[in-house]
């Protein structure tokens, strides 16, 4: 790692020497509208903060300079940036021809500006028709182009424009692994691609806790509360204008029927935008008591509005990208964002013939709170981009090189990304210890932290947060990119909400506890929570004997008895999240009392607590110890002493173990006759002592059709932590395609 860091520093030093020790990189940032400025502004602030390396020229064009869209160039001036040139490039019109003419007008005006500025590099963002004019002008004038957010997939003409700019650009900054892979598949030079994340996330992830009530009151009224209003932002789809206008009408009808205070923003400058404004006015939106219609909201304030909204609705990329950072519910309408990577907070309504479908979506989504998603960034994009800019060698040939197949995997310019490992934070909430680990995608425990579990709820939650924050910070030094947090805990868990409903007696004061929200808010990461038995089954499915097996059951044999059931490759939770409480299968009507209050449960016979209870009885009768055994006076009798006595020939201890093994075996037979799995995995410290007894009971008691089941002992060293990590890694693998 030190070698690579030194190599990177040496390369930067060589680049500075080549470019001239006093030469500053002259960067031209061209912004066309309010949306792209929200992504470019963090980069502009970063460039401005390092005047020893960069000179910044700002060019403003497009809808920034149109009164109908709020004259948004003023927010650039308010951010204290000097605007070098203003170019009026929008041709008024309501059809596709107006967009073409606007591109042509920009192409006519830009050469003179670029001749005067003579930038070393131009930064172009996104997929708008204005950006295509900028990239075309710069490419034809032999100016290097850095394209932000290339490689992404959405819908409409935007895809074609974005990919066209990619082919013109010399350097690429992308936001997701999928986008990086798309750029590589498009034969772009691997060394000129940087996976940095979205620059706007640098501001988003630090914004939610700021004062927001005054902003809500200013835009929506003093009587509006957080999570009790809607933000609507919908643009025309230029490849199907008529249908997108119809969808907008249905959206407004649904919002009127839903009867919640709604902030409606005017659409982008696109073919069809005027018609959408006419629809708003026809329905009286600007004068309706439940609606506030505005042309523009400053980005800092817009962040606060969507962060605390009950829902966002429309087809803006902001909904599927930035809003996920806050876990705000989103309803994405139509095809404009088809193909975008989204978090679980996004509900898609691809098509709608009536308002009913949209209204139903509002009823499903409004007021929910989802885990914070960091698909599009981790808050460190700008430092990576500035480092990337400093590494550009102006002496290198300007002509692009294309890397045709075969294609390398996951290679980017930034050495930190080459070395990074996608990982999860795994938390095991045990009866005695609280453990947190960084676990890699391959199941390697990179680093583990262990603390005694505090007795009170407040202390326990405080320690979890402290350990998670410490582990997340250490992950940066270990070059591990944390995708999320998985928590394994005893008791009954609602995994959909991340709430522990009822815990075991081993963990007191731990009922109806929301673990997801405080941890997600503190780390800005998605959080998953599940029962420890279910986590053990997930660990086996991803890393152990259950890999590739369609139907199997995992039984944990430890302090208690638990387990998890995988049916058709999916974990079963049950209607009230009580599935796979395998330790409480009754195998005798008059057996010993269980901690659950019943009698004759497997746990009452075969758990560590049950064996310890029987060992104490033998010890009290002075028949536990045999030749070869000794105990210190203060030593506590445990299940381990019973097992040792049985191995050394103690007949009573051996009988207790055989009874425990038989009880466990009968429970497994019941499972076979109910679920018919092809594999049973015994996990935990007692598994190896029970496996032969379980096989014998199956041979004697099971139906012939169920006897073919395989019974194995788990080979996983730490199924609880690996299972907690699987909650994160399995979801991430499915989401990223």
UniProtKB/TrEMBL annotation:
A GO cellular component entry from the record: cytosol
UniProt GO molecular function: ATP binding; hydrolase activity, hydrolyzing O-glycosyl compounds; metal ion binding; N-acylmannosamine kinase activity; UDP-N-acetylglucosamine 2-epimerase activity
Catalytic reaction annotation: UDP-N-acetyl-alpha-D-glucosamine + H2O = aldehydo-N-acetyl-D-mannosamine + UDP + H(+); an N-acyl-D-mannosamine + ATP = an N-acyl-D-mannosamine 6-phosphate + ADP + H(+)
Known pathway: Amino-sugar metabolism; N-acetylneuraminate biosynthesis
Segments forming domain UDP-N-acetylglucosamine 2-epimerase: 53-390
Swiss-Prot/TrEMBL GO biological process terms: UDP-N-acetylglucosamine metabolic process
Keywords, alphabetical: Allosteric enzyme, ATP-binding, Cytoplasm, Hydrolase, Kinase, Metal-binding, Multifunctional enzyme, Nucleotide-binding, Phosphoprotein, Transferase, Zinc
EC numbers for this chain: 2.7.1.60, 3.2.1.183
Pfam families linked: Epimerase_2, ROK
Residues reported to bind an N-acyl-D-mannosamine: 492, 504, 532, 581, 584, 603
Record protein name field: Bifunctional UDP-N-acetylglucosamine 2-epimerase/N-acetylmannosamine kinase
Source organism of the structure: Casuarius casuarius
